[in-house]
């Protein structure tokens, strides 16, 4: 729970202010029954109306003061808990953003969403609850005990039985409840996860008519959530009335014993009323304590889950970076090996890419092309060997500066909700409209964008659903180009673009790419044929390295690809 420390320091003052008001509130509450017993025993029994009015006025005054301090305390406590929740959420979001892919792979994405929303909320609710009962409930409880005992030591024997029983019930409730609420949270993760997966694949689900299957899958998660919640709530449902019952039995005992003594003339009626009032106050405070303990049980389960994210050590060194020297985008792969987990995906890859060159990367699907280029911006770190950019090992560099140099058009196009203009500008903060337009022209996106009624201000739905596959790819390329990078990585970025448009994009890039180092992954051999250098990958190994003509002579795998796509015999 180390992550909570900074907030304790920050919010201790307003917290203590709230507690101060609480204290006052509790004192006001404690005075009421005694005053009432006086009104009854002295005023009513003695027929002294003046006394009744005097004490009644005092009672009103104390109630008013208590109410004022209660509302002030409410304002302070909501302020503290809301601010605390917002900050915690924002810091958690930042932490998640700072984590590397290898770290993030350890968490279920849906569970990160629940941690960010529901879990933070639970902790926030607990903090708020704490400010409502902290000090007040124990004070009411202890104060009630003291006042009641002072009022009538004989009746207090009942308390000696009731209070320990209630305390034991509360402890058992907590012990049983904690693991249950933890499993409720896990089940909620699964509900969120299954909904998320369904929504992201909704088109496929419709196309394959797999509604029933998906509904059944969702229902399994949903019912599990129900079962777990019911079991946790049942726990509360048993214990809360049990506590209530114990205290009410105590009140019955007080009325019985008191009744006997009044009829014997040993006790006054006002004492019994005041005593039962103190008893209900004690009951009320114990109920509050057990309620906040329930909140605590949930909040603890949530805090553990939030703590897991904060405790996640970034497997990549982030801050110990040298600053990146100005260079011109020379890339060297030296003996690079890499695996996600287990099986190696890349094996001892060595090649050099000179500044300003375009390097084509080709190979069958699953051969490791995307994995290879994803190492460059350090989405993952190599297991063996080194990757150098302009002579510096990328692991020694300040990652932010390294990524500044690189623009990547990922294989899976990702666009954001917003206008096309915003999506392209996203590539570089502060890019002007002219720059955006120029990038879009190079990516051959300008024409189709201006063809829409709203042009660059056309709004894209989530993930760019209202664009075609090829249009999305071109917007994505424009976003990379506006960045003005030294190294441009295109991961199969023209796969959904027709051959003629692709040729135009390559033409524009060639003019633009002077001095720009470009890594170009492609499935079509025609896309890489005229590159300065072609790297051929096969099952994670580099099996060919050279120009198109050289490879046609020396590389079997390249020859096979050429034959299958161009359909001619080599030589
Ligand atoms: P295409 O894009 O289909 O042409 O393939 P590629 O050459 O880009 O292959 P890629 O580098 O994406 O994948 C190489 C191998 O790594 C495959 O066997 C995948 O199963 C594996 N792989 C890719 N991404 C991940 C990942 O995020 N996690 C894990 N565990 N394995 C992955
Ligand atoms: Mg790929």
From TrEMBL:
Keywords tagged on the record: ATP-binding, Cell membrane, Membrane, Nucleotide-binding, Transmembrane, Transmembrane helix, Transport
An example Gene Ontology CC term for this record: plasma membrane
TM annotation in the entry: 52-70, 133-149, 155-176, 236-258, 278-297
A GO MF label: ABC-type oligopeptide transporter activity
Keyword Cell membrane: yes
Domain ABC transporter span(s) in chain numbering: 331-564
InterPro entries documented for this protein: AAA+_ATPase, ABC1_TM_dom, ABC1_TM_sf, ABC_transporter-like_ATP-bd, ABC_transporter-like_CS, P-loop_NTPase, Type_1_exporter
Alphabetical list of Pfam families matching this protein: ABC_membrane (PF00664), ABC_tran (PF00005)
Its membrane topology: Multi-pass membrane protein
Domain ABC transmembrane type-1: 16-298
Localization, UniProt: Cell membrane
Matches recorded under CDD domains: ABC_6TM_Tm287_like
PANTHER family for the chain: ATP-BINDING CASSETTE SUB-FAMILY B MEMBER 10, MITOCHONDRIAL, ATP-DEPENDENT PERMEASE MDL1, MITOCHONDRIAL
Protein name: ABC transporter
Organism: Tumebacillus flagellatus
């Amino acid at each position: 729970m180390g992550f909570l420390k900074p907030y304790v320091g920050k919010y201790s003052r307003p917290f203590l202010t709230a507690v101060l008001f609480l204290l006052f509130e509790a004192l006001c509450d404690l005075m009421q029954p005694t005053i009432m017993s006086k009104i009854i025993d002295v005023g009513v029994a003695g027929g002294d109306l003046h006394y009744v009015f005097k004490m009644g006025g005092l009672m009103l005054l104390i109630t008013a003061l208590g109410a004022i301090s209660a509302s002030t305390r409410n304002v302070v406590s909501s302020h503290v808990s809301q601010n605390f929740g917002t900050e915690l959420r924002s810091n958690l979001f930042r932490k998640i953003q700072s984590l590397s892919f290898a770290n993030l792979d350890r968490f279920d994405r849906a569970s990160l969403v629940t941690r960010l929303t529901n879990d933070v909320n639970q902790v926030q609710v607990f903090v708020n609850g704490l400010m409502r009962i902290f000090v007040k409930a124990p004070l009411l409880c202890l104060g009630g005990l003291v006042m009641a005992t002072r009022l009538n030591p004989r009746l207090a024997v009942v308390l000696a039985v009731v209070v320990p029983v209630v305390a034991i019930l509360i402890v058992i409730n907590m012990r049983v409840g904690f693991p249950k609420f933890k499993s409720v949270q896990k089940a909620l993760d699964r509900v969120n996860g299954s909904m998320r997966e369904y929504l992201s694949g909704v088109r496929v689900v419709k196309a394959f008519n797999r509604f029933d299957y998906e509904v059944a899958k969702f229902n399994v998660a949903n019912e599990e959530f129900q079962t777990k919640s019911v079991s946790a709530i049942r726990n509360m449902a048993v214990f809360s009335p049990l506590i209530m019952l114990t205290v009410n039995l105590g009140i019955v005992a007080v009325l019985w014993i008191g009744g006997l003594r009044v009829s014997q003339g040993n006790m006054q009626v006002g004492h019994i009323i005041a005593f039962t009032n103190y008893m209900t106050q004690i009951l009320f405070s114990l109920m509050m304590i057990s309620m906040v303990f329930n909140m605590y049980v949930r909040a603890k389960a949530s805090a553990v889950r939030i703590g897991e994210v904060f405790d996640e050590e970034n497997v990549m060194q982030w801050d110990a970076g040298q600053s990146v020297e100005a260079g011109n985008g020379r890339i060297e792969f030296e003996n690079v090996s890499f695996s996600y987990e287990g099986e190696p995906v890349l094996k001892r890859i060595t090649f050099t890419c000179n500044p300003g060159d375009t390097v084509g990367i080709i190979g069958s699907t699953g051969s490791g092309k995307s994995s290879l280029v994803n190492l460059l911006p350090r989405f993952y770190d190599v297991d063996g060997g080194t990757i150098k950019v302009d002579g510096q090992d990328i692991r020694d560099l300040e990652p932010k500066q390294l990524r500044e140099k690189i623009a990547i058009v990922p294989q899976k196009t990702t666009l954001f909700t917003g206008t096309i203009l915003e999506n392209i500008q996203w590539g570089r903060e502060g890019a002007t409209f002219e720059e955006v337009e120029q990038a879009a022209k190079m990516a051959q996106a300008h024409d189709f964008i201006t063809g829409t009624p709203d042009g660059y201000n056309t709004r894209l739905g989530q993930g760019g659903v209202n664009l075609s596959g090829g249009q999305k790819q071109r917007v994505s390329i424009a976003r990379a180009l506006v960045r003005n990078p030294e190294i441009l990585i295109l991961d199969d970025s023209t796969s959904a673009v027709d051959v003629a448009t692709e040729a135009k994009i390559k033409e524009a890039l060639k003019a633009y790419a002077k001095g720009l180092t470009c890594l170009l992954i492609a499935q079509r051999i025609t896309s890489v044929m005229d590159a300065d250098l072609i790297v051929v990958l096969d099952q994670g190994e580099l099996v060919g390295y050279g120009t198109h003509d050289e490879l046609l002579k020396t590389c079997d795998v390249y020859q096979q690809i050429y034959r299958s796509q161009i359909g001619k015999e080599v030589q």
